[in-house]
Amino acid sequence: MALRSDWSEENCPIRRSLDVLGDPWVLLIVRDVLHGRGRFDSLRSNLGISEAVLSRRLSAMVDAGLLARVEYDNGGRTRQAYVATEAAAELLPILQQLALWGERHTVTPEGGGHMAMVHRTCHTDTVQGEVCSGCGDTLRPEDMTWVKPWQDTVDDLVPAGYLKQP
C-alpha cells in the first residue's frame, strides 16, 4: 500500500518534484553522492540506513534519473557505485538552502555547529545556494565541500588559514 498518492501526473511542478524528492532519504543520499560517497557501504554507514531501505531508494533514484550506476573493481570483484546525474547535481543549491534554513530556523543540538559550505576555488564559506558569496562563480558540486564540525575539522578538508568568511 502506498503511503501517499502518486503525484507524477500533477500539473503542479512542486507536487511532481515532491513525487521524486519527497522522501527525506532521497536528499540525504543525493548529498552524499554529490560529495563523493557513492558506494553502497559508504552510504549505508554514513547515513545509518538499513541495507533494504537503501537498496530500494537507490533503485528508485536510478529509475527517476537522479543517479546512475557505475562499475568499479573491488579487489578483483566488480561492484556498483552511484554517481549523480545532471538532475541530481542541480539539487546542490536546494541542499545548500536547506542547510542554511536549518541553521537559521532549527535548534542546533549540543556538539553541532555551523556547517561550512566551502567553495574550493576561492576557499569561501559561502552563504548562498547558486553562486559563491566570495567570488560570484556558479557553484558546482565538484567545487564544493561541506565541513561538518560534529564530524570533520576544517583542517581535515581545508588547509589551516585557508577558509575565508563572506
From TrEMBL:
Name of the featured protein: Helix-turn-helix domain-containing protein
Record keywords, A-Z: DNA-binding, Transcription, Transcription regulation
Matches recorded under PROSITE patterns: HTH_HXLR
KW Hydrolase (keyword) present: no
Signal peptide: none
Stretches assigned to coiled coil: none
Domain (HTH hxlR-type) ranges: 12-110
Organism: Rhodococcus sovatensis
InterPro entries in the cross-refs: ArsR-like_HTH, HTH_HxlR, WH-like_DNA-bd_sf, WH_DNA-bd_sf
Domain of life the protein comes from: Bacteria
SUPFAM superfamilies noted in UniProt: Winged helix' DNA-binding domain
